[in-house]
Amino acid sequence: RSLSCSTSPLEPHFTECISREQETFRCWWSPGSYHNLSSPGALRVFYLKKDSPTSEWKECPEYIHSNRECFFDVNHTSVWIPYCMQLRGENVTYFNEDDCFTVENIVRPDPPVSLSWTLLNISPSGLSYDVMVNWEPPPSADVDAGWMRIEYEIQYRERNTTNWEALEMQPHTQQTIYGLHIGKDYEVHIRCRMVAFTKFGEFSDSIFIEVTEIPTKESTIPFTLVLVLGIVGILILIMLIVITQQHRLMMVLLPPVPAPKIKGIDSELLKKGKLDELNFILTGGGMGGLPTYAPDFYQDEPWVEFIEVDGEDGDSGEREDNRASDTQRLLGLPHPVSHHMNMGCSNAISFPDDDSGRASCYNPDLPEQDTLMLMATLLPGQPEEEEASFDVEERAPASSERSLVQAQTGGPQTWVNTDFYAQVSNVMPSGGVVLSPGQQLRIQESTSATEEETQKGKEDEDSKETEEQKQKELQFQLLVVDPEGSGYTTESNVRQISTPPSSGEGYQTIHPQPVETKPAATMEDNQSPYILPDSPQSQFFSPVADYTVVQELDSHHSLLLNPPPNQSPPPCLPQHPLKAPMPVGYITPDLLGNLSP
Amino acid sequence: SLVFIKTTQSKLFLNQLISLLFMLYMVAACKAVPISDLLDRASQRSDRLHSLSTMLTRELDSHFPPIGRMIMPRPAMCHTSSLQTPNDKEQALQVSESDLLSLARSLLRAWVDPLLVLSSSANTLPHPAQNSISNKIQELQEHSKNLGDGLNILSGKMGPAAQTMSLLPYRGGNDLGQDKISKLINFQFLLSCFRRDSHKIDSFLKVLRCRAAKMQPEMC
Question: Per residue in B32-87, pLDDT tens?
Fold first, then answer.
């Protein structure tokens, strides 16, 4: 309690009243500057306990004169009841309003006891560590009964410094101190107070924390050594194997990187720039597909697995199957019996059959009968075959073969060599898409070659199969045309499809001719849904919309496919080398570079 | 789309079922909450209540220490002084649990109205920390209400003796004074009364809790 600010001599007053455990309390007084009152008994302590309106001042129950202390024991102490203290002299009463209090507000708990600490951990850098400090609550405080609730404040500092660090108050009897430094000594002490009150008790005795450096590096040394030795050993082993060229082990350790290896084709052709020859071979330019007696280019690599090629690149068998099923579905044909020619398989290229399901072996599910029929009917010179052509179920395979042979021995036919892409020529209002057959590559050589081979008959089933492909493709295209509802493409539609000839060199295409087609269900019809190929003369002009050549770029960098014939080129457009159409229907990347103005 | 509708319906149904099961579980679980847990929660709330009141008093005093000193608190004039409560540890340890709870509830109930008065006065309190004080009074009201509800539940589990309450009506009126000084003084006085009673409530609940936690001495 602070002294009143007055210049008058200090009156006797109470210096402090403290309770340690909320069960007893003491008050100390001082005579002030009235030294003659300092002798024991000169001043008497009186207190008023306001527990009833009729309470009176009573004298201190227990004096401790040596301390000038008045002690109130358990019987005289009540909580939540205000006390007022008075000092009385001979005839004078010294009373201060400030000396009234309630016991709970003067509680200052005793300090905690039994402080101890344990090392929790050391940081990986070995520079700092954490410590857990434990203690006991002050024995005088009855914490177990819940009569007092205490919270603790830890303070610590380095030895020989003056500033204490305080941690946050908390009611538990342990706390962790983080981040102490190795090699430094620390001093820790604790004080406490009642929860939600303001007066702290005294500090406890200090304890000292010392942690010296602990060498911990040795444990890591053997580990790194083992690691390094292990890696070195493995490297040596690999090198030995490589040097001694044990092929088997090399295969195990360093398996060969698979490169595209197509049987019968020199891998040289697969390099850049030789696309033409490759295409030639693949599209049956030579013998119609890959010859069976292809030179074995990969003799010394027995583990080579070949990519199977059936005249198309990619997954041959699946595409055929899809087409077949699409065709069948569209035509409404029952799934044909597949016991007939296994032509593809008889000449099958040997292959390891673990990769694709069918690989090069042609899908026995192919409806080869009706495709053959279609092939037959596609030949314009064989009208007498038409009626029989669609009656798939009734045709024996042999007869179909026969007809095919006859068909093949017909006049020179131009076969449509479909390319690997089909172009969308037009989108009809009803939503159907009109495809046009792909561009024919090297139609001259291939036509003559195919003519030869068809005349030879069944010699090369591969080509037949490829042609079947194309027929089916065509048929597919035809049937796409079908759903327009018009039933057939008329002459006028054809004119829509075809583009005005802007140049004729380099590619020949086939017009899709107007054909009366019926819905696929009615197969009794004599009419054959087929595309009559044009006469060869017509092939040399009028490019159908296969691939349209980029003629020009206009000022907005958009590609002009077919510039209006009578317009002069816009003046701002510079002459660039691509006025002439490109010979091949698609743009290779190096040519694309030339496109940009 | 029918399948889709069916799946959403079944999903809704499933959700409802799950929420119903969850509620049933919660109800069952609530019924099964042991008294010690309830006491624990209650004592935490009373702890908070008392801390808030201490902070409020300090905040009030921080700006007007002279007033705090001049007008000594006359706790005998608190409206709850008529309630007979244990005044020391021995007495507190001898009172039965039900009585302790009943005392706590009575005290808490007695402060519902005065807290309203304090709250409305805090809005116009002529004090620099008026805003903070006003917020704390709001918090006091909330905690007080929550604690009251919790104690009601507790009393239901502890028998009829715990359910009796003493009425301690507040007769101080709605208004703490006309002039600034008397307003402040009365505000502070009322708050000191509240603080005393919040400590009583807290102490009684702590004693109760420690008695109930005989098996788990670490709770105390």
Answer: 677 778 888 888 899 899 999 999 988 888 876 555 455 555 666 788 888 889 98
* Token pair belonging to A396: 């024996």
Q: How far is CA A135 from the centre of its chain?
A: 53
Give strand pairing partners of A57. Answer: A48
Band of residue A462 on the pLDDT scale cut at 50, 70, 90: very low
With an 8 Å Cβ cutoff, are A80 and B196 in contact?
yes
Q: Which residues of B touch A74 (CB under 8 A)?
A: 88-90
Is residue A54 within 8 angstroms of chain B, CB to CB?
Answer: no
> Nearest-CA residue of chain B relative to A84?
B72
As a whole number of angstroms, the distance between CA A161 and CA A180 comes to 15
Cα distance between residue B211 and residue A152, in whole Å: 23
**Angstrom distance (rounded) from CA B3 to CA A307:** 45
Structure tokens at A229: 């030795």
Encoded tokens for A268: 């040289």
Rounded-to-integer distance, Cα B156 and Cα B150, Å: 10
Contact by Cβ (8 Å): A501, A542? yes
What distance in Å separates the CA atoms of residue A544 and residue A440, rounded to the nearest whole number?
11
Task: Give the C-alpha separation, A152 to A204, whole Å.
Answer: 11
Cα distance between residue A488 and residue A478, in whole Å: 9
In this complex, do A97 and B70 lie within 8 Å of one another by their Cβ atoms? yes
Nearest CA in chain A to B91: A78
3-state secondary structure of A140: coil
Question: The tokens of A65 are what?
Answer: 């004169």
ipTM score above 0.85? no
Tokens matching residue A206: 């200090």
Tokens of B52: 């808030």
Residue A63: closest CA among A45, A76, A36, A90: A45
| DSSP assigned state of A266 | -
Q: Are A194 and A150 in contact (CB under 8 A)?
A: yes
Cβ contact A78–B87 (<8 Å): yes
Contact B76 A78 (CB under 8 A): no
